[in-house]
Amino acid sequence: MKIGIVGGGIVGSSLFRILSEKHQVKVLDPKVKTQFPTLIHSMLLKGMDVQLAFKSREIYDKYKIERYPFKSYTLGKVDSSILSLWENYGVSIKETEVNWIGEKAIEAQGGDSLVNIKQLTDIPKEQNKVKIELKENIARVFANGRELTREFDTFILSAGSWNSNIVIGEKIPLKPYYCWATVMKGPRQLDKFIVYDYILGFYSRPLLGIGSPLFVAGDGDIIEMEPPEDGILRRPEIKDMELVISRIRTRFTARMIYISGNMCEGTPDMKPVYGRIKDNLYIVAGLNGYGAEVGPGLALLTAQFIEKGEEVKEYLIDRFRGIRDFSLGKEPHEL
Ligand SMILES: Cc1cc2nc3c(=O)[nH]c(=O)nc-3n(C[C@H](O)[C@H](O)[C@H](O)COP(=O)(O)OP(=O)(O)OC[C@H]3O[C@@H](n4cnc5c(N)ncnc54)[C@H](O)[C@@H]3O)c2cc1C
After folding, report:
1. Does residue 166 have its Cβ closer than 6 Å to ligand 1?
2. How far is the CA of 190 from the centre of ligand 1 (A)?
3. For the chain, what are the domain ranges?
4. Which CATH homologous superfamily contains domain 2-320?
């Protein structure tokens, strides 16, 4: 099959790697997004997302994408059924008092790593800005104004927060939003461990992982905003920035160095979606704040759907049929 992938971020690059084994695949991407060099991959999720994260990890390993494992500490009450689920997927956990945090925590080993996303997304891309017109059963696909519809057997839309701008003619159940994190200087342990603090409401991860005094911290807050067409991201007003930083400083002696952010995308139930939306168009989207965790797994489900017709209903786009408008909720990787 000749397959055109629209958007070569985490999902598009995973799709490219999986589908290129059997098909002729091209990735179309105007490179308007700068990816963070590394992102958290965590198995410490809920429900079927844990299975999807497991599949993602298998994909990273299959395509030799570097992962740097870290121990993590989860603060706050975690349901015993969730802990058992993590253990079933090979994560070692124990409850322990962590002196440098000053709290009891769930220490997890084998569940978290930072993934080299730059390496994952380093694939051949044709620098094309795509627009897709949805009409009856067909998607008409244009790249830099030139129609490509007949040049491919099928297309896959995987342009993250740009998806809803690319598609014209019909509404798709996706909304873009802005999400931020801050680089801070503080205790060196924070560059050695990942912390999910559900008591105060923030997470932290190593910046470099070499025991420097630098770490990255943020929360899962959502600021609805359109993605930039020209790739120049204009930071919106972040109303809760001071509040989140003060929460981090309640726990640790730390100071902010800089704030960074980027675009994310959510669905009506905040879970990712995949499926077929036209005879010649599939979609994989709505990865919100955990695309490195579940994105490659969802790309695999999409490939299995295209090639064998296999469906995993939990993530199918059909669940949103009839939904006209919606508000974004809480990110699903938060417990
Ligand atoms: C501050 C911050 C921290 C985060 N931390 C983590 C983390 O630690 N772990 C984690 O799992 N997730 C994290 N995320 C979320 C993660 O970045 C997203 O879930 C993920 O990038 C979504 O992947 P995607 O492939 O759907 O889209 P993207 O990675 O956004 O890729 C979309 C691609 O589409 C392209 N595109 C845009 N317009 C067009 C067009 N017209 N035609 C064709 N292509 C187009 C873009 O250039 C881009 O390459 C974080 C996000 C932010 C903002």
Report:
1. yes
2. 25
3. 2-320
4. FAD/NAD(P)-binding domain (3.50.50.60)
Alpha helices in 240-310 (DSSP H): 241-251, 291-308
CA 295 to chain centre: 6
The string of DSSP codes covering 190-252 is: GGTEEEEETTTTEEEEESSSSS-SEEEEE----EE-PPPTTS-PPPPP-TTHHHHHHHHHHHS
The finding on whether 227 has its CB within 6 A of some atom of ligand 1 is no
What pLDDT does 219 receive? 87
Block residue for tokens 């730059």: 118
**Cβ proximity of 56 and 293 under 8 Å:** yes
Q: What is the pLDDT of residues 247-293, one digit of tens each?
A: 999 999 999 999 999 999 999 999 999 999 999 999 999 999 999 99
Our answer on whether the CB atom of 272 is closer than 6 Å to any ligand 1 atom is no
Confidence of residue 231 (pLDDT cuts 50, 70, 90): confident
| 248 CA to centre of ligand 1 in angstroms | 26
> 160 CA distance to ligand 1 centroid (A)?
5
Alpha-carbon distances, residue 250 vs 38, 41, 43 (angstroms): 27, 26, 27
DSSP-assigned beta bridge partners for residue 17:
none
Confidence label for 324 from pLDDT (cuts 50, 70 and 90): confident
What is the tens place of the pLDDT at every residue in 135-171? 899 999 999 999 999 999 999 999 999 999 999 999 9
